[in-house]
């Protein structure tokens, strides 16, 4: 029996209902099996979708502030189970425990945001060009939302989608990553507990479907699901986007990044270095917002390189290990495939690099895949850099003038997060105007976004926006409504005449 069994059973009291043999769950901490589950069948998913449609029909009629009350209680329940759920996040996806806690905190934060939102689903009134006409823009619940999530944010991504969907009047079906199904079942158990004491919440308002690509595709192809929100690789998005479009569905895509920080001569390195380090090596390089490129002015690059090498050596020698250990800053990679991908990329660029630091496997005496983070100094940006490798490889690249740095920055196909380190307001504003990313930061790194802003990116990152700001609009249906309240024959728009006599 797994040493984590007690925690898992505590979080998922009905685990027996999911047991089976075709979905073996392992922990990246040591590669050991922590549960053996059963994937859902196509027939079961079909039935879930039918139930989700029924749940939506009831939920859409519940007033939005009452839907918000449901989400408020969900936030409270998450507070209660924060430590257990954080531990399971760490055990299942390998992020260090403080980041596991941060991820669950993010769920709580989006609950609070959504509660406020439940009283602010504002439409518009619009002036009409015709006498005695009024125009409104109204927002209506959309329908069942399909949520597909990635392994590296196994629970927060669901909450960004589901909490907004719930207050907007939608039901949800969640297909978590096949690498992290337990955290999804734990969250579902929490939702179930809240729903049990909330009579307005229909049965099957929130559901989890377990499966791999085939189940994901079935969800994506089903016309009863008006919105598919899919988070994962650009490879996945390139498959999902066209399939949803082919049935005239709506997709919200949150895909891979290739994020850079530009460091200008005016940068305050005391401010910049910690952000660059956390961005590059935090979460063992397994964030969509991980800093993959440091584009540094030539006058600073030797200094920055020396400081980074020192920090990388310290991290690699003393801070790689069990993510449940409070001393650890770099946990394991998710699996061997990820480790192999990292080594393959390092071998590809090695002969063209000025210097490569780190990247070696670290043995901590168990079956997990642990690595020293890798820092690769280049003389110029290579084509090989344009691909996202989901592991801690960071490229250090020199530039001579800001236009050149900006061009290099925007050259990659992804467009998620970006940052500049500068104390010059002109450089900062130039950067915000010219970065082609969905996120452009000044003097903070590329990762660690707050929930209040809309999160997402452009180009191959998919164009979707989730979480804060007005991202809720993706989960509703916009309707323009014109009312004539006069008693004369109504005028036609644009002065069109259509007189019968
Ligand atoms: P992945 O693409 O392998 O899988 C993501 C999810 O998509 C899984 O649930 C998987 O089963 C499903 N899936 C894969 N192919 C599918 C298909 N054809 N139809 C339907 N579903 C399909 O990604 P991963 O390895 O779990 O996660 C890492 C990737 O996710 C990285 O590229 C990272 O940048 C990205 N990511 C992006 C964001 C963001 O908000 N932009 C957030 C987290 C992760």
What does the secondary structure layout of this molecule look like, with pairings?
Elements: H1 5-11, E1 19-26, E2 33-37, H2 42-59, H3 64-80, H4 82-93, H5 97-117, E3 124-126, E4 133-141, E5 145-148, H6 156-168, E6 172-175, H7 181-196, E7 206-208, H8 213-221, E8 227-231, H9 234-246, E9 250-254, E10 259-263, H10 269-281, E11 291-297, H11 301-318, H12 336-350, E12 355-357, E13 361-362, E14 370-371, E15 374-377, E16 393-399, H13 402-410, E17 414-415, E18 417-421, H14 425-434, E19 439-442, E20 454-455, E21 458-459, E22 466-467, E23 476-484
Parallel strand pairs: 5-6, 5-8, 6-7, 8-9, 10-11, 10-18, 11-16, 15-16, 18-19
Antiparallel strand pairs: 1-2, 3-4, 4-23, 12-15, 13-14, 17-21, 20-22
Descriptive account of the structure:
With 501 residues, the chain is an alpha/beta fold. The chain has 2 domains: 42-255 and 462-480, Aldehyde Dehydrogenase, Chain A, domain 1, CATH 3.40.605; 259-442, Aldehyde Dehydrogenase, Chain A, domain 2 (3-Layer(aba) Sandwich). Helices cover 38% and strands 20% of the residues. It contains 14 helices and 23 strands. It has helices spanning 5-11, 42-59, 64-80, 82-93, 97-117, 156-168, 181-196, 213-221, 234-246, 269-281, 301-318, 336-350, 402-410, 425-434, and strands at 19-26, 33-37, 124-126, 133-141, 145-148, 172-175, 206-208, 227-231, 250-254, 259-263, 291-297, 355-357, 361-362, 370-371, 374-377, 393-399, 414-415, 417-421, 439-442, 454-455, 458-459, 466-467, 476-484. A hairpin with a 6-residue loop joins strand 1 and strand 2 (33-37). It is globular. The termini are far apart. The model has no long low-confidence stretch (mean pLDDT 97). Bound molecules: nicotinamide-adenine-dinucleotide (NAD).
